[in-house]
Design goal:
Blueprint lengths: L1 E5 L2 E6 L2 H14 L7 E5 L4 E5 L6 E8 L2 E2 L3 H8 L5 H6 L3 E5 H4 L4 E2 L11 E2 L22 H13 L16 E4 L7 E2 L1 H6 L7 E7 L11 E4 H5 L5 E10 L10 E2 L29 E3 L3 E3 L1 E3 L18 E2 L2 E2 L5 E11 L5 E11 L6 E4 L4 E8 L6 E2 L7 E3 L2 H6 L2 H16 L3 E2 L8 H10 L7 E2 L1 E2 L11 E10 L4 H4 L29 H10 L2 H8 L3 E7 L5 E5 L4 E3 L9 E7 H12 L15
Bound molecules: zinc ion.
């Protein structure tokens, strides 16, 4: 007997698993049971799984019966004449939706020419095996699958025009591309998603090495292209504060804080506040500037304290521009929160021109950072005077086997020269051969190479250089968000180590590898300075070896278990070691330090 599980719960048994599955599928195709039902017979575990829940991804395929696809030429003709709809085909059992579980029992042919007696289904189009993002990759069938996965991820990271009403919204940490373009080599899914869903720009590239500035994955960008506005974007960051009420009738105040309140910094930080305690639009701000002035009552007051002077010292809880950021105040919104408290929201925008280290990627996961922004006059040029926007090193292609990157570049060249879009839909694209032929007709070499001249010397390159046009995306990872340096600053209370993380102006770890560079340079004094910065003094009992406590009344260190007579010594250790000893004691382990005189034998 075979157990039958309905949405995960055991609900009965049948005598033959495969026969039962056939019957269920047949009745589903006939329409006597629900079309959303999917069934799987697992032979190894001898069980049947039936799913009708909402949490499954399902995809449509054409049904094959005894080696004959159920869709006919008549169907297709009627579809074209609008006499038949998609739902009609599902009702007739020509097309059915299967989920991942049912797919285990199927044998799906990619093309109708491949169909054998064993096949159960036929793909409507091989492209449907991709997700929506992956299907946007042109010539995707020429790539290895892992490149498609990363290409899909890169497309999600690409900056675009994400919503047309962006001026009326306050989104967290959002980037906006100024001049998005539709790719000229595109998949047909691009047309389904529409022109607005474009997250990049078409650019002319030359595949060559440039002084090593584009070694590994780095790219060299033409400064003239950036000056013309290539990949320019704006970063938006909202700042929010709520005017809260506290127990005892105390409230937050949105105002210019008085100088005597707790946490007031310097007057200069508050210079942009107007009378209402809020800054004004179109003012240029930088990290640390107050944009909303706010004071809060002191918290955690005991009953006694509430009568003292403490109750009147308010603290500064102003909203400041994040450390390391800059921008222009672009909108100010006064509204109410869900709880009915007054709410102030300010958006700061920052125009971002690509700089060294900003990340770019094509749709084939050929991602890289800018290694050099080269002056236009130094960039190579073709015989007709065309200068590439970008120089791309050739090693990246052979290593990652992104053949489609090269085909798209060639297709882009044809598209740009012929003034038309090139169809690069995976499995169903314009062929490479046709593109080469067309390029030849357009007066170029069919392999896409051209004679290039070095911009710096004017000399002709000995080799022919591959020049073409390809769609590139600017990714959201930008140097402006990551750049950080600190000379001195806060330390954590517990460990006395510098705080970690950019948001808290944290320190940068000087780790093992960095240490080795100092060793390599023989910079021993710097190394000493870097590695013993947190020394502390501890008192140790000479008799028992435990850490002694310092008695400030008697002005001497005392070991409490051994009494006042025991002698103590002062030693210098790192604070982290002292903390470690404290932590051991907190779990009931008593560490002892047995001291010896450094100078005696
Ligand atoms: Zn002792």
């Amino acid at each position: 007997m075979v157990d039958v599980f309905m949405n995960g719960a055991l609900s009965g048994q049948v005598s033959s698993g495969s026969k039962f599955m056939e019957q269920v599928i047949a009745s589903r195709r006939k329409g006597t049971i629900s079309k959303v039902l999917n069934i799987r017979y697992c032979k190894a575990e001898d069980k049947i799984e039936i799913s009708t829940s909402k949490d499954r991804l399902r995809r449509p395929v054409i049904v094959i019966k005894e080696g004959v696809p159920q869709i006919t030429k008549e169907h297709i003709k009627q579809l074209k004449e609008n006499k038949l709809t998609w739902s009609d085909l599902i009702k007739k059992g020509v097309i059915e939706y299967i989920d991942a579980a049912e797919e285990e029992n199927t044998y799906i042919a990619l093309y109708d020419k491949d169909i054998t007696k064993e096949h159960t289904h036929l793909e409507i189009n091989p492209l449907t095996m991709f997700g929506s993002n992956t299907s946007l990759v042109p010539y995707a069938n020429f790539n290895q699958s892992s490149r498609l996965n990363s290409g899909m991820k890169n497309q999600r990271q690409g900056i675009s025009l994400y919503a047309l009403n962006y001026l009326n919204r306050l989104d967290t940490n959002m980037n906006l591309l100024h001049q998005p373009q539709k790719p000229i080599v595109k998949s047909f899914t691009q047309d389904i998603f529409g022109d607005l869903l474009a997250g990049g720009q078409n650019m002319t590239i030359a595949v060559l090495n440039y002084e090593g500035y584009n070694m590994e994955d780095a790219i060299v960008i033409n400064k003239a292209s950036l000056d013309r506005g290539y990949s320019r974007s704006t970063h938006f960051r909202p700042y929010t504060t709520e005017k809260l009420r506290y127990a005892g009738g105390q409230v937050d105040k949105i105002t210019i804080p008085d100088k005597d309140i707790q946490g007031y910094t310097v007057e200069e930080d508050y210079r942009f506040l107007e009378e209402d305690g809020i800054t004004y639009p179109e003012v240029d701000v930088k990290g640390g500037d107050v944009i909303i002035g706010k004071t809060s009552p002191p918290r955690f007051l005991s009953k006694l304290e509430s009568f003292s002077a403490m109750a009147n010292t308010r603290k500064d809880t102003s909203v400041r521009v994040k450390f390391g950021e800059k921008g222009t105040v672009s909108k100010i919104l006064l509204t109410e929160s869900e709880d009915g408290n007054p709410l102030v929201q300010i958006e700061v925008r920052d125009s971002r021109i690509p700089t060294n280290g900003d990340k770019f990627s094509s749709r084939h996961a050929q991602k890289g950072v800018i290694g050099l922004i080269a002056n236009s006059e130094d960039i190579p040029f073709t015989a007709s005077g065309i200068q590439p926007d970008m120089l791309f090193a050739p090693y990246g292609v052979s290593k990652r086997m992104t053949v489609s990157h090269l085909i798209e570049t060639l297709g882009g060249k044809v598209a740009a020269l012929a003034g038309r879009y090139v169809d690069g839909t995976a499995f169903d694209s314009e062929t490479y051969g046709d593109l080469r032929e067309e390029l030849l007709k357009l007066g170029f070499k069919d392999d896409g190479t051209e004679t290039l001249y070095d911009g710096r010397t004017g000399k002709q390159y000995k080799a022919k250089i591959f020049v073409g046009s390809i769609y590139y995306m600017r990714l959201k990872y930008q140097v402006a968000d990551k750049l950080q340096a600190r000379a001195r600053g806060r330390v954590a209370l517990l460990t006395r180590q510098p705080t970690a993380g950019k948001a808290v102006e944290g320190g940068l770890r000087f780790g093992e590898m960095e240490k080795e560079t100092l060793v390599g340079h023989g910079a021993s004094l710097l190394m000493k300075e870097r590695f013993d910065s947190d020394k502390t003094h501890v008192y140790v009992c000479d008799r028992c070896g435990a850490m002694a406590t310092y008695d400030y009344y008697k002005n001497k260190a005392i070991c409490i278990p051994c009494g006042e007579k025991a002698k103590t010594s002062t030693i210098e250790v790192s604070y982290a070691f002292k903390l470690f000893l404290d932590e051991l004691m907190s779990i009931g382990i008593r560490p002892r330090l047995h001291l010896k005189d450094k100078y005696s034998q």
